[in-house]
Amino acid sequence: MVNNVHELRPKAADSEKITINLGYVDLGHIDLLVQEGFYSNRTDFIRTAIRNQLDRHNDAVTKSVARHQLDLGLRHYSRQDLEAVQAAGEVLHIQVLGLASIADDVTPELARQTIASLHVLGALHASPTVKEALKNRMR
Predict the structure, then answer these.
(1) Burial class for 4, CB neighbours closer than 10 Å (0-12, 13-18, 19+)
(2) 102: closest CA among 67, 70, 138?
(3) pLDDT confidence bin for 117, thresholds 50/70/90
(4) What's the CA gap between 29 and 63, in Å, rounded?
(5) Three-state DSSP class for 24?
(6) Among the record's GO biological process terms, what is one (predicted)?
(7) Strand partners, 94
(8) Among 101, 99, 93, which Cα is nearest to 69's?
(9) CA distance 114 to 85
(10) pLDDT band of 15, cuts 50, 70, 90
(11) Residues paired with 119 in a beta bridge
């Protein structure tokens, strides 16, 4: 029998887990709304509340993204991307609102040589050694 097992590349998470502390009364109000069927669970309520606030401040966020010249969304930097920057004798000033990821095969040396500054509002996915190599370039 032929074994048709293929190793899949791990999928990047499409969300980041956060922890919040709420007072008992606020938590009780949320539980009541869940119990009454307004929301499917606490997470559904919290996500909805966050989205409502983001919608409410959408104009300010849009202007701020433009003013700070942030890349919006997901931005991945492969080893080949950074080697091309290095070959051109340039450096990157990475500014991302969303998710910035640096490939696992990027060495700390290559990251230091090609990334002059790193400003991520959201999440940064990179190896611990690359994060350590860039820690003094992050704001």
Answers:
(1) exposed
(2) 138
(3) very high
(4) 34
(5) helix
(6) regulation of DNA-templated transcription
(7) 118
(8) 93
(9) 7
(10) confident
(11) 95
Q: Is the pLDDT of residue 7 over 50?
A: no
Query: What's the full length of the chain, in residues?
Result: 139
Q: What amino acid occupies position 78? A: S
Residue appearing with tokens 């499917």: 40
Domain ranges for the chain: 24-56, 68-137
Q: Can you say whether residue 89 is alpha, beta or left, with left for phi > 0 and alpha for psi between -120 and 50 degrees?
A: left
Structure tokens, 116? 């002059």
CB 119 within 8 A of CB 96: yes
Span 30-69, pLDDT tens digits = 999 999 999 999 999 999 999 999 999 999 988 988 888 8
DSSP, collapsed to helix, strand or coil, labels residue 1 as: coil
- The per-residue pLDDT for range 55-65, each reduced to its tens digit, is 999 999 889 88
Q: Who contacts 36 (Cβ-Cβ below 8 Å, separation ≥6)? A: none
Task: Give the other-Cβ count within 10 Å of 119's Cβ.
Answer: 16
The long-range contacts involving 39-48, CB below 8 angstroms and separated by at least 24 positions, are 46/20
